[in-house]
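Researcher: Checking consistency across runs. Here is VOC family protein again:
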Amino acid sequence: MKTVKLEGLTLLADDVARLARFYQEVLGFTILVEEEHYVEFSNSGVRLAICSKSLMEENTNGYFSFRESRKGQAIELNFQCDSPEQVYALYDEFVSKGAIDVTAPQIKSWGHTTGFFGDPEGNIHSIFAVNPA
């Protein structure tokens, strides 16, 4: 059986410009493509993009789910740091720039130092580092 490769991840947004500003100004992503209903960022590894629900509805011949209001968590992105110290520093920086302060970094039982923050669309993401042995 042939497997597929995950090439990209697209976040759906009600307000593409607002969410794109967050990923650019707070998280430091560089914009490669910027259109009214679609923004794509430079990223090594998996492509990250934001697309309006209205454009996805148009692209899918009016598929009903793109007209529905989203409630609750839609996706969690996990941002890995090189060290626990970097997790603490970046978490504080993100929150000072407008990220929602959900859970400050803590040493977790699974061997990571992890914090959780929110973006303007209500998605909660983690920032973490593997703790030294």
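Researcher: Does this match what you'd expect to see?
Model: One thing to look at in this run: The chain has a mean pLDDT of 92.
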